[in-house]
Amino acid sequence: MVFTGGDPLKRPDLFQLIKYSIGLGLRTNVGASATPLLTTEAIDEFKHIGLARMAISLDGAAVQSHDEFRGIPGTFQRAIDALKHARKIGLETQLQTTVNRRNVGELGEIARICEDVGTKMWSLFFVLPMGRAESKDDLSAEEYEQVFQTIYNISKTSSFDVKTTEAMHYRRFIAQKQKHGLHANSDGARRVVFRTAGVSDGKGFVFVSHLGEIYPSGFLPLFAGNVRQDSLVDVYRNSSLFRILRDPASREGKCGVCEYDKICGGSRSRAYWTTAGDYLSEDPRCVFQPSGVLAAPR
User: Fold this and answer.
1) Which domains, and CATH codes, for the chain?
2) Is the model more confident about 68 or about 93?
3) What gap in Å lies between CA 211 and CA 193, rounded to an integer?
4) Rounded Cα–Cα distance for residues 55 and 34 (Å)
5) In the prediction, which pLDDT does 70 show?
6) What percent of the chain has pLDDT over 70?
7) How large is the average pLDDT for residues 133-147?
């Protein structure tokens, strides 16, 4: 269970909700925002009530790059201070980075910050052309492969795990390394890949908005019900939207014939945002050519 935002600390009942979630036996995390509400007292309370992990975003390796991307001065230092305080009191952290054209050259430096603050996981969110993000911020398919190699190399020696979001094809990248015997000294990479293999929009993941709307993810703007009227379990299991997303045969283009469909499946959100809303089309940021495509008659 992850409480995220916006800024989840704007909810006056956040700590009560966390306690309730933990009481149900759920591993509970918070995706905190580096705002003035993220005080040392708030972080202390996270630890006190038994929060499993606090996630903080860092989208640049220095004040200028991070604050410019976020658009709010002071967020870099506040994020660093929060991560360091969490380490001091023994609260697990997860450092999150939105990978985009502006910061690909800083990933090595951000990884060093991950080591410095003792984070347990570096979660890389690959930018989508939605909201305030622009198409020019996205990487090409070839650049994705270059970033995959960079973070794979980092994972070989890092003390933290490396995970990707909206880059399901990183799992394919790792599987190819393993297939060709090139995965030595990267147990962390394999561990994360296999733990998250096949998890995607509506498959092992569900997102509930602040209005109660039930989405397959926070990046795919199609909802299948509302928890105020509908059973979350029933929507997840039986709604046509969620069932289609879990069916590999429903995917189009090369994603529909790819041999890595069980661990990847492509980003349905990227497909949606780079087409006229066709969330079943192939992921346009993947260079891999499935054998089914290569063998198809011309």
Assistant:
1) 2-196 (3.80.30.10), 207-291 (no CATH)
2) 93
3) 32
4) 10
5) 85
6) 91
7) 86
Q: Give the phi and the psi of residue 161 in degrees, each rounded to 5.
A: -80, 155
SS3 readout for the chain: CEECCCCHHHCCCHHHHHHHHHHCCCCCEEECCCCCCCCHHHHHHHHHHCCCEEEEECCCCCHHHHHHHHCCCCHHHHHHHHHHHHHHHCCCEEEEEEECCCCHHHHHHHHHHHHHHCCCEEEEEECCCCCCCCHHHCCCHHHHHHHHHHHHHHHHHCCCEEEEECCCHHHHHHHHHHHCCCCCCCHHHHHHHHHHCCCECCECCCEECCCCEEECCCCCCCCCCECCCCCHHHHHHHCHHHHHHCCHHHCCHHHHCCCCCCCCCCCHHHHHHHCCCCCCCCCCCCCCCCHHHHCCCC
**124-153 average pLDDT score:** 87
Nearest Cα neighbor of 266 from 126, 124, 130, 147 is: 126
pLDDT (0 to 100) of residue 112? 97
Burial of 135: CB neighbours in 10 Å, binned 0-12, 13-18, 19+:
exposed
Task: Supply the pLDDT for residue 297.
Answer: 43
Rg (CA), the chain: 19
CA distance 170 to 148: 6
pLDDT reported for residue 114:
97
Q: What angle do CA 135, 137, 143 make, to 5 degrees?
A: 105
Q: What is the dihedral of CA 106, 140, 279, 298, to 10 degrees?
A: -150
β-strand 29-31 against 2-3: which pairing, if any?
parallel
Has residue 156 got a pLDDT over 80? yes
Q: Is the pLDDT of residue 1 over 60?
A: yes
